[in-house]
Design a protein that fits this description.
Length: 383
């Protein structure tokens, strides 16, 4: 089997010739640029000018020699953001700052800063009608978004990789919170259903338009689309299941239906961190094929239980090793034990792609990453 055949077999709930391995094949399974540089050096790969795939997370764009060395089965096509440097990163006291195309202000500490965090919210106003009237939305059909998309997807497909296409922006709920500010976002959920509908309807409109254009151009070379919405924390959901089902789920359903209509053959790969278990059945119902990251240390996210309850109906992409409390610190035996346990839980019967629970953090020792990889390789074909 080549990489694509291996992943597709797993997605169809069959055991392939080996468990598929992913690192950086989707937006939330990658590696921070600092950790990537360190790992390349550890592997004696030639020095490279590391390209940042996502300025906010500082995730690295993985080079072909690295993908081959670690036998990565999936390839992420991120495309181009419209006018990504229109504002430019500038110094502001102790911070590096910039404003993205959604007019969201972001900053990163100049001293030991690793990420650009949200700092200002353009629609954080009690006079929402007025703020909305003066707000300029990004153009999801801007040609610069699609520059090089077809070429990269085609090359990855020809190389036998499973190709994942990234979307316009983070999820409809996340974007709502970033634009509005978290305090007003939660106030809206509790008291302003018309404002919630206004925001989510607009986000679905923009995202669906993007997917229609993107998939019309590259859908024949793409195996999955990468959508996301972080809807849970370490100990529970960020809002009640009832709130999700009444205020948010209809908009996810509408968006996912638009994606499937644009390209019925693609798999829908959906990311949500945290204790998402109460909503997994809902996500299956509205068309999610693959769930990431399987944050196994969050409340209710025991991998054996998840596999028993949902393993026939959804694919688990992630959960291979805990990037939060194990991979970054070790020791080596703890990493080995974690990898083995999670593979034993999630791999039988297919329906599993091995990946860390999230982006590998900057200070993760390269030796720890290789312990993870070597343990995985020793087990990948043994089940």
């Amino acid at each position: 089997m080549n990489s694509r055949e291996r992943v597709i077999s797993a997605i169809h709930h069959r055991e392939p010739d080996g468990i598929p391995f992913d690192l950086g094949g989707m937006a939330q399974s990658g590696i921070h640029r600092v950790a990537y540089q360190n790992l390349r050096q550890h592997l004696s790969l030639p020095p490279m000018n590391v390209e940042t795939l996502n300025v906010n997370t500082q995730q690295a764009r993985l080079d072909v020699d690295f993908q081959r060395r670690l036998r990565v089965d999936a390839h992420l096509v991120y495309g181009q953001w419209a006018s990504p440097s229109s504002a430019g990163v500038r110094e502001d006291g102790d911070y590096l700052t910039y404003t993205d195309e959604w007019h969201v202000g972001r900053r990163m500490s100049k001293k030991n800063g690793y990420y650009f965090d949200v700092h200002t919210h353009p629609l954080a106003s009690d006079a929402i009608d007025e703020a909305w009237a003066h707000y300029t939305w990004p153009d999801p059909t801007d040609p610069s978004r699609f520059k090089g998309l077809k070429e990269e997807a085609s090359q990855a497909r020809q190389a036998g990789r499973y190709v994942v296409l990234m979307g316009l922006c983070p999820g409809i709920v996340e974007m709502y919170a970033w634009l509005r500010g978290y305090e007003l976002f939660y106030t809206d959920l509790a008291t302003e259903p018309k404002i919630v509908a206004q925001f989510l309807d607009k986000m679905v409109e923009l995202k669906a338009t993007y997917w229609q254009h993107a998939l019309a151009q590259v859908g024949d070379c793409v195996d999955a689309v990468n959508e996301a919405d972080d809807m849970a924390g370490q100990t529970g959901l960020l809002f009640s299941p009832n709130t999700y089902r009444h205020l948010i789920k209809p908009y996810h359903r509408k968006l996912f239906a638009a994606i499937k209509q644009a390209a019925p053959q693609v798999h829908l790969l959906f990311h949500s961190c945290g204790a998402i278990r109460p909503l997994v059945g809902d996500l299956i119902e509205i068309g999610v094929d693959i769930l990431n990251p399987v944050q196994i240390t969050a409340k209710g996210m025991d991998p054996f239980e998840l596999k028993r309850e949902f393993g026939r109906d959804i694919v688990f992409w992630g959960g291979g090793v805990d990037a939060q409390q194990v991979l970054g610190t070790g020791p080596a035996q703890k990493i080995r034990d974690d990898v083995r346990r999670n593979i034993e839980a999630l791999a039988p019967g297919g329906g599993f792609v091995f990946a860390p629970t999230h982006i590998i953090q900057p200070e993760t020792p390269p030796e720890n990453i290789m312990v993870m990889w070597e343990t995985f390789q020793a087990m990948a074909g043994s089940l």
